[in-house]
Design brief:
InterPro entries: MetalloPept_cat_dom_sf, Peptidase_M12B. Pfam families: Reprolysin_3. One of its GO terms (biological process) is membrane protein ectodomain proteolysis. GO terms for molecular function: metal ion binding; metalloendopeptidase activity. The strands form six sheets. A nine-stranded antiparallel sheet has the order 5-4-3-13-12-11-10-9-6, covered by helices on one side. The chain is α+β, with helices and mostly antiparallel strands and 502 residues long. It is built from eleven helices and 26 strands.
Length: 502
C-alpha cells in the first residue's frame, strides 16, 4: 500500500495471455516516468509478461517475446554498432547559481549501471536493456510503427506482480526468464514540421565571404565509409521536472538540519530520477540511430557525446528566455543556443559536433513580425547543412537543433532534424545553394518518407531515394564529416578541427 500526500493513479493492468486483470497503484512520478504524461492523458497500454533469453544466452543477440493487443511479437535483437553510449559519456547537471560563471553551476554526474543498446531492423525495434534486481532485466524503447515498451518500477514488480506465482510459469525453454513490462500504443502526432531551411530570409547561414571561408576544403575526398556524429544532448527542466530537489538543495538541507537520513532519502530519489531519465534518453537516441542503419557509403552511427540535464528552467537560458508560454518557446531560441555553446568553456568543444536540445515545449514561430500574431507550433527546427560549422563571425555554433518530444514521439523528428544538419532537404525541395548537390525535387513529399512533413505508414521509418543521395553527397565532402574507420580513434570534431577551423 502506498501512502502519502502524493496523488495516486489507479490503472487496470491487463494480462491477455491468462485472461486475468489486476489493479495497480502508481504515483504521479511513476506515471510521468513510464508514460511521459499525466495520468488522465496516458495513451492506451497493456502490462504483459515479457519472455527473453538474456539470462542464458549470449547477450550480443538475445530474443524477446511477448503478446499485446492481440499480436504475438518476437524481437531478434542485435547489439547496436559503434560508440553509441557508455561509461565514457560525460553527464552534467546544470542549475542556476549566482556565484558560478554565467550564473550557472555545472556538476559532473557519475551514472551507475550498464545499458546495452539493441536493434532489430525487421521489426523496427530499438531497445535499451539493463539488469534489475534478482537477475531480472528491464527493456525500454520502441518497436513497430507506434509502440513503446517501458519497464515497471521495481516496487511494482516486487510488491504486486511477483505475488501471483501462476504468472511465472516457464512457457518455453528458449525463454527461461519472464519480466513484466508496459506496452504503450503511442499517440499519432500529425503536426506539420517547418524547419529553418524554409526561412532563409531570417538566417544568415552562410553568405558572402563567410560562405567561401567555410567551404574552402570542399574538394577534399573522404577516405572512410563510416562516420560517427557526436551529439551533445540537452535535456531541459520540463523534461526533468519530476525531480523535486536539486543537488544544491540537498546540501542546504544537510547543512541546516544535519538530517543525514533525510539527505540520503532525497539523494537516492535524485539518483533514481536521473537514472530513469538516462534510460529514456538512451532509448530515444537508439531509436534515432536505428533510422540511420540503412545508410551506406558512408555508414552513419550516432554517438551521444555529452548529456546536459537542466535542474530548473533558468538552467537553460537559451530556451527559457525565449518562452512564449508554459508550453511553447520561440524559434529564436535556436540561434540563442548556438551563441551560448560557442561561448561556454566548461564543456569541451572538442567533445561534440552537434547540439540537440530535447524538450517537452513545442517550438513556436510567429506568422508575422508582430509578436502578438498567431504562433504556429513546430515539432522541430534546425539549420540545413550546418554540421561541423563553428561560425567565428557570428560567434555561434551553427550545428544546433531543437526537438519536441513526449513519450518517444520525437524520435522521427530527431532523425528528420539531424538529417537537415547533415545536408538533407525536405522531399520535394532543392538543396540550398550553399550546399549544392542533387536536392530532392524529384521525390514527392506526399509519399510520407522521413524527410516529408507528413510521415505515415511504413515509409515514415525510411529515407527516400533523394534523401539517400543527399546524404551521400554531403557526407562525402570532407569538411563536413568525420572520416573514421572502425580502427581509428579520430572523432568527428577532431577531423573538423584539423581540416576546418585552422
Amino acid at each position: 500500500m502506498i501512502t502519502g500526500s502524493e496523488r495516486l493513479c489507479l490503472f487496470l493492468l491487463t494480462f491477455p495471455q491468462w485472461s486475468a486483470q489486476i489493479c495497480e497503484l502508481l504515483t504521479d512520478k511513476e506515471v510521468e516516468s513510464i508514460f511521459q504524461t499525466k495520468c488522465d492523458t496516458a495513451p492506451e497500454y497493456q502490462v504483459v509478461p515479457v519472455l527473453h533469453s538474456l539470462a542464458t544466452q549470449n547477450i550480443l543477440n538475445p530474443k524477446v517475446h511477448f503478446k499485446f493487443f492481440g499480436s504475438d511479437v518476437t524481437l531478434y535483437l542485435w547489439r547496436a554498432e559503434g560508440k553509441f553510449f557508455g561509461k565514457h559519456t560525460p553527464i552534467f547537471t546544470v542549475e542556476t547559481d549566482k556565484s558560478s560563471p554565467r550564473g550557472l553551476r555545472y556538476t559532473k554526474y557519475d551514472a551507475d549501471g550498464i545499458y546495452h543498446a539493441y536493434q532489430d531492423e525487421s521489426n523496427n525495434a530499438a531497445i535499451i536493456a539493463r539488469k534489475g534486481t534478482n537477475n531480472s532485466y528491464k527493456f525500454d524503447g520502441t518497436f513497430g510503427q507506434n509502440f513503446a515498451i517501458r519497464s515497471l518500477p521495481e516496487r511494482v514488480i516486487n510488491e504486486i506482480i511477483n505475488n501471483n506465482k501462476s504468472q511465472h510459469q516457464k512457457y518455453n525453454e528458449n525463454y527461461p526468464q519472464i519480466d513484466h513490462h508496459v506496452i504503450i500504443k503511442m499517440k499519432d502526432v500529425k503536426k506539420v514540421l517547418i524547419n529553418l531551411d524554409k526561412h532563409s530570409s531570417n538566417n544568415s547561414f552562410p553568405t558572402g565571404d563567410e560562405q567561401k571561408s567555410l567551404r574552402k576544403y570542399d574538394k577534399l575526398k573522404m577516405h572512410s565509409n563510416v562516420v560517427y556524429p557526436e551529439i551533445l544532448t540537452v535535456i531541459d527542466y520540463d523534461t526533468f521536472k519530476c525531480v523535486k530537489y536539486t543537488m544544491k538543495r540537498f546540501f542546504q538541507i544537510f547543512t541546516r538540519w544535519r538530517d543525514v537520513k533525510m539527505f540520503v532519502i532525497l539523494f537516492r530519489s535524485f539518483q533514481s530520477d536521473v537514472l530513469e531519465l538516462l534510460v529514456y534518453l538512451t532509448a530515444f537516441w537508439n531509436g534515432v540511430d536505428l533510422r540511420y542503419k540503412s545508410l551506406r557509403d558512408p555508414k552513419v552511427h550516432l554517438n551521444i557525446a555529452t548529456i546536459i540535464i537542466g535542474l530548473d528552467r533558468n538552467a537553460t537560458p537559451y530556451l527559457n528566455n525565449y518562452r512564449v508560454n508554459e508550453s511553447k518557446i520561440n524559434i529564436d531560441s535556436l540561434q540563442a543556443m548556438g551563441h551560448y555553446f560557442y561561448a561556454e568553456e566548461r564543456i569541451d568543444k572538442n567533445s561534440y559536433d552537434i547540439v540537440i536540445a530535447v524538450t517537452r515545449s513545442t517550438v513556436c514561430e510567429h506568422l508575422k513580425d508582430n509578436k502578438n500574431s498567431s504562433c504556429v507550433s513546430l515539432r522541430g527546427i534546425s539549420q540545413v547543412g550546418s554540421a561541423c560549422v563553428r561560425n567565428e563571425v557570428k560567434k555561434a555554433v551553427e550545428s544546433v537543433g531543437l526537438i519536441h518530444d513526449q513519450g518517444f514521439n520525437g524520435i522521427a523528428t530527431a532523425a528528420h532534424e539531424l538529417a537537415h544538419i547533415l545536408g538533407v532537404p525536405h522531399d520535394g525541395s532543392p538543396s540550398p545553394p550553399y550546399i549544392g548537390g542533387p536536392g530532392a525535387t524529384r521525390c514527392n513529399w506526399q509519399d510520407g518518407y522521413l524527410m516529408s512533413s507528413q510521415r505515415f505508414g511504413s515509409n515514415a521509418f525510411k529515407w527516400s531515394d533523394c534523401s539517400l543521395e543527399c546524404f551521400k553527397f554531403f557526407l562525402n565532402q570532407e569538411p563536413n564529416v568525420s572520416t573514421i574507420n572502425q580502427n581509428s580513434t579520430q572523432t568527428f570534431q577532431e577531423y573538423c578541427q584539423d581540416r576546418y577551423y585552422r
